[in-house]
């Protein structure tokens, strides 16, 4: 009986959020670092499917770094990084696109369709979804086919959402000269959230969120405003892969998205816990 009452309490706690977020757009970046975890991948699919069945509009952008690493190793293509970005040669970009758009993307679409969700897997070339431009970090190293988002075809995404489809997007872009670009999935998700006037952006990876000292788990930060987030970057409190995540969050909040969440996809049903509970499980970044 206690467990039944506890379940009812959880449903009551979730009700205000269900009402608040109905018909709102949520953008999720699903990190490639956790795609290999079958149990939690299935839990993520169940969570997103529930959000959609409750009336929320969802867009997913996925990564696939581990899959790309394996494929390039199989092909004997060297993997190198510069300032956190994969140096993507002419030879590598073909394999990167195949892995992201042909393998990871279609597997996710298949899993969602099996949950009764009308999922459609696309990359940035479909319907001109993601126009891109070459990313220039510095004059010393050419990182190849790595791009920045130049433009998002929001008409295409609105058409899919309006017909109750779930867009699942691999972060491959193109330019008018026929070049293909691999784009950081965090950046694509952030740009889509801004362009679509989304309610929230969720960055789902293999970390719990933001710490003031990553080696001290007691320094976890559950809520963070953009002023303090900028200070943490400037002071070197956060580093590595967390920097582009926080920078993406800051940018989209400055462009009108209400808040962003960084959560650990290895926490089973973490999406539902973050969306429908008062405390959540990750770090929420907001304007104030």
Q: What is the percentage of strand-forming residues?
A: 15-25%
Let me know the average pLDDT.
Answer: 91
Helical percent range? 40-55%
Number of domains: 1
Treating each run of at least 4 consecutive H or I residues as one helix, how many helices? 9
Terminal Cα span: 41 Å
Largest sheet: 8 strands, mixed
**CATH class membership:** Alpha Beta
Q: Write down the Rg.
A: 19 Å
Q: CATH topology, what is it called? A: Carbamate kinase
Structural class by sheet pairing and helices: alpha/beta
Q: In terms of per-residue confidence, which ranges show pLDDT below 50 for 5 or more consecutive residues?
A: none
Q: Which strand order does the major sheet show?
A: 5-8-2-1-11-15-16-14
Strand elements, count: 16
Task: Identify the CATH architecture.
Answer: 3-Layer(aba) Sandwich
One letter per element, helices H and strands E, the order comes to HEHEHEEHEEEHEEEHEEEEHHEHE
Can you tag this structure with a few keywords?
single chain; 288 residues; alpha/beta; Carbamate kinase; eight-stranded mixed β-sheet; four-stranded mixed β-sheet
Q: Care to describe what's here?
A:
This protein is an alpha/beta fold and 288 residues long. The chain has a single domain, classed as Acetylglutamate kinase-like (Carbamate kinase). The protein has nine helices and 16 strands. The strands form four sheets. An eight-stranded mixed beta sheet has the order 5-8-2-1-11-15-16-14, with helices on both faces. Helix 6 (185-195) packs parallel to helix 8 (242-254). It is globular and about 60 Å long. The chain starts with a helix and ends with a strand. The model has no long low-confidence stretch (mean pLDDT 91).
């Amino acid at each position: 009986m206690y467990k039944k009452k506890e379940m009812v309490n959880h449903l009551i706690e979730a009700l205000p959020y269900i009402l608040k977020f109905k018909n709102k757009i949520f953008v999720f970046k699903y990190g490639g670092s956790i795609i290999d975890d079958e149990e939690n991948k299935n839990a993520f699919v169940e969570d997103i499917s529930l959000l959609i069945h409750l009336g929320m509009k969802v867009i997913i952008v996925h990564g696939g770094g581990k899959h790309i690493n394996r494929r390039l190793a199989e092909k004997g293509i060297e993997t190198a990084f510069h300032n956190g970005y994969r140096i993507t040669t002419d030879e590598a970009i073909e394999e990167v696109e195949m892995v992201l758009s042909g393998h990871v993307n279609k597997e996710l679409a298949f899993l969602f369709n099996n949950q009764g969700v009308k999922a459609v897997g696309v990359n940035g070339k479909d319907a001109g979804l993601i126009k891109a431009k070459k990313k220039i970090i510095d004059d010393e190293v050419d990182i190849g086919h790595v791009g920045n988002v130049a433009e998002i075809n929001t008409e295409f995404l609105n058409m899919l959402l309006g017909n109750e489809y779930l867009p699942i997007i691999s972060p491959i872009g193109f330019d008018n000269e026929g070049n293909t670009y691999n784009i950081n999935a965090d950046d694509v998700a952030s740009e889509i959230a801004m362009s679509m006037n989304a309610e929230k952006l969720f960055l789902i990876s293999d970390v719990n969120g933001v710490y003031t000292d990553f080696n001290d788990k007691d320094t976890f930060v559950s809520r963070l405003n953009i002023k303090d987030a900028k200070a943490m970057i400037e002071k070197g409190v956060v580093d590595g892969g967390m920097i582009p995540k926080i920078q993406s969050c800051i940018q989209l909040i400055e462009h009108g998205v209400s808040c962003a969440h960084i959560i650990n996809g290895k926490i089973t049903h973490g999406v539902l816990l973050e969306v429908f509970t008062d405390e959540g499980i990750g770090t929420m970044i907001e304007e104030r």
